[in-house]
Amino acid sequence: MAKDKAPVTPAVRLLRAEKALYTDHLYAYQDKGGTAVSARELGVDEHSVIKTLVMEDEGHNPLIILMHGDRQVSTRELARQIGARQVNPCAPEMALKHTGYQVGGTSPFGTRRPMPVYVEATIAGLERIYINGGKRGYLVSMAPSELQRILKPVAVSAAL
Asked: Which CATH number fits domain 10-156: 3.30.930.10, 3.40.367.20, 3.90.960.10, 4.10.480.10?
């Protein structure tokens, strides 16, 4: 079972510094369980659980795309919309190097290196989102407007 005390991660430090309005949610992490497990454990719709995916363009420049848990990213459409020839997922070790977070615990907040952040446009229409807080088994929930205010992501339409 998950621990009762929320971790203090680089993401949490940034959220606190930005005076973000968020709520902690701990759950029992399952390796390769993805957003289906976190949604089930928290009793929320998987569509409102937001995946943080680390990708790179053809020049190996990293970027983050935030996507609904129940959707996939069209890398072709994402590349077209951001003006890249190609976009591909980063290998887990490269994602760790860029963000400082393990796969399964990647947060868009408090990354090791600044990088462009893109968000599926329909996420803004949700009432509340659940997004990784920087550790496996730990999500934070907030209004999408908080995500927008802190990260200033570029909206794209790349969901499959």
From this structure: 3.90.960.10
